[in-house]
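Exam revision sheet. Question 4 asks you to relate a sequence to its structure. Input first:
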Amino acid sequence: MDISKSKELFEVEEVRLSYFVVAGLALSVLSSLILVAAAIGYRWDLWSVKFALLALTKYATYGAFAGAAVSLIGVGKSWPGGNSRGLVMSLLGVVIGFGSFWTIFDHWKMVQTSPFIHDITTDTNNPPPFSAVVAIRESLNANPHNYEGDKLALLQRYGGFNEPYKDLSPFIAKSPPSETFDAALKLVEEMGWKIIDVDATNGRIEASDTSFWYGFTDDIVIRVVEENGSSRVDIRSLSRVGKSDVGVNAARIRSYISALSGKIEGD
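Answer key, structure tokens:
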């Protein structure tokens, strides 16, 4: 056998996985699994929301960033012509680690730029009150259901960066209240919310919606009334736990009003 070829074969065999490749991928995957476990554990009542968010999620986010950084070093080490192998593993570590980190970081940004509130409504002067869901909330020691008045209204209007909720407003429909109410109720069913109470006489619908990961539940009340020959639809969304809803309630209201406007003609 040619000596030069034997030498080349020997050098190829000597190439090993870099510690950066292995450590980066392992840290990224482990941190991502902890983030998932934090949510599932809270949903299964294995630990408190404070432990899930301020301990597991917090440090797993740091770990995910570190995993991405170490994997990035691994990319340099394993790049073709480098002194180690494992390029695919390193790239995977970067994607998993940075993806997990960015998901939590993006939520953190929303917390910083959104009003620090968890009770959102289209009518801050006369918000729709909760009725049927009150007993459920009190049994769970949830956030108070009574609207906090002018202070909360001001926070919704001006409490966040660039006034993020200033677009929230009632939906005015040309159809009569009874027809509008039927459309509003049907939409609640289509959106998969859990209906708690329906009061057609007073034009009130109460429902709840639960998030996918953590299982956070928010309660919703919809009010349909006659106004100047048209129908006015107001909606209020209130979180059961937490001081900040990270914009979830406002997003839910926008989604509902947008879908309703596609079903019945607005005024």
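Marking note for examiners. The mean pLDDT is 91.
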